Amino acid sequence: MNIADSDNASEVLRIARQHKHNHAFYDDFLDKKKTKKLFCEEAMGFLHNKERKIYVLKSKDGKVLGFISYLEPILFNKALNKKVITVDFIAVDKRSQNKNLGAHLLASTLAMMSDFEIAELRVASDNYPALNFYTKFGFRIIGGDVWLSYQPR
C-alpha cells in the first residue's frame, strides 16, 4: 500500500464514484447526484489534508484497485491524550470486489497504525455485511447511532 498522491487522484475518484455506502445516499431529502459529487470531492480533499490520509492498493501493473481513508483527529487526540484513528471508508473497484482486498486494506492500515491506541469507525446499523466484516477484525459495537433527517414543509 502507498499513500495516495496527485498521480492516483483520477483512479481514486473513479473508485469513489462507484461507492454507494454513505449515510447521505439514504436520505430521500437529498439530491442523489449532488450527494455523490460531494462524496467524490470529499475523497479528493483527503489528498491534501494533514489530518486525513488515503492509502491505495495497486495491482502489479500499477492500477489502483481500492483505497482506504482515515482521519487522525489531532485536536481530539491531544485533548484526550489518546492516539485514535477514525477509518472513514474503504472502497474497492467494482471489478476487484470479493477478492478480500477490503480486508487487506483494513489489515494493512491497522498494522501500519500500530502505535494508535484506538481505531474507530461508523457503519449504518442495518449494513449487516459491513458489521460482520469489521467485527471479524476485532471491532466491537459501542453504540447505535441513528441518522435523522427533517425537512420543514
Give the SSE map.
Layout: E1 2-3, H1 9-18, H2 32-45, E2 52-58, E3 64-71, H3 74-80, E4 84-92, H4 101-112, E5 118-121, H5 128-136
Parallel strand pairs: 4-5
Antiparallel strand pairs: 1-2, 2-3, 3-4
Report on this model:
The chain has 153 residues and is α+β, with helices and mostly antiparallel strands. The protein contains five helices and five strands, in the order βααββαβαβα. The chain has helices at residues 9-18, 32-45, 74-80, 101-112, 128-136; strands at residues 2-3, 52-58, 64-71, 84-92, 118-121. It has a five-stranded mixed sheet with strand order 1-2-3-4-5.
Radius of gyration, whole Å? 16 Å
Number of strands: 5
Number of H/I helices? 5
Give the N-terminus to C-terminus distance in angstroms.
48 Å
Structural class call reads alpha+beta
> Tell me about the biggest sheet?
5 strands, mixed
Low-confidence stretches: none
Average pLDDT reading: 81
Strand content: 15-25%
Q: Helix proportion of residues, in percent?
A: 25-40%
Strand order of the largest sheet: 1-2-3-4-5
Instruction: Indicate the overall shape.
Output: globular
Order of helices and strands: EHHEEHEHEH
Looking at this protein, list some descriptive labels.
about 150 residues, alpha+beta, 5 helices, 5 strands, about 35% helix
